[in-house]
Amino acid sequence: MKRFFIFLTAFVFCALCARAAEEIEINTEDEWIISGSYEPAAPAENAENTENIQPAKYLLLLHDLGKDKTEFSKLGNKLKNAGFGFLAVDLRGHGKSINKGEQKQFIKTGVNNEFNQMVRDVTAAVYYLNGKGIATENIYLVGSGLGANIAAKSLIFTPDIAGIALLTPSLKMRGVLTISGIRMNKKPVFIAVSSEDRKQMVEASIIHKAAFLSCGEGKVTFMTAYDLKGAEMINKYLTDEFLQWLKQPQLPEIIADIPEEENINVLIQDATGLQPSAETSLR
Questions:
Q1: Is the pTM of this model over 0.85?
Q2: Which pLDDT band, with edges at 50, 70 and 90, does 51 fall under?
Q3: Taking the domain 19-41+55-252, which CATH number applies?
Q4: pLDDT for 235
Q5: Where in the chain is the domain with CATH 3.40.50.1820?
């Protein structure tokens, strides 16, 4: 009986640990109902000492064309275990977000087609997270394929996000352009692409160059990985690298080994407690 009680307790504990993300619905301005899976970030350690706790980071996950939010299922588990929160959504016309039609019916070209209007799905999702008390500057946009293009274009409307990750982005897909948003962005960028797809490699390299010119040195990470694309590429090859980028999305400022001349006398005084003499001063 005792063994059975221990087994039952362990089973219940594991079931709680493995609980599914909360299924939610979000309404957009143009009346689409967007289905999503929401996972709050793990509570910070030493929660009593609030002075040194950094705000939790959240990811808004945007899937590729013809897929749905389950594209990020494996990555979602990794994010959860690493302490990150996330919201994975079915973009309009995909998955369960089909109250006004399916993506196969959408016009494939034009700046105002439904694919371009998916930026409204992103805006609504960001507002949802804001309603949960999550500041926009703690939210990262992560897109795969079409979702990468949508994430990039969304930078025009959500410039205060923490950073953006583009997994196999293209210059243009279903009429959705990436460059306009990238040129406006000043936040850290992660770009990953298959090295075996020459066209995507060239286009991702152009996006990388535009991001570098906009963001500056130390804010753009560019990675390649064999034959897979999108979330599958991250799952198999780049999980550790991606999680590390989330923890430190830009390189720290480089500090010179030798201080500037005008600061040396101050350092001498701080170190010795003495006013710099003719022998110690460099002036």
A1: no
A2: low
A3: 3.40.50.1820
A4: 95
A5: 19-41+55-252
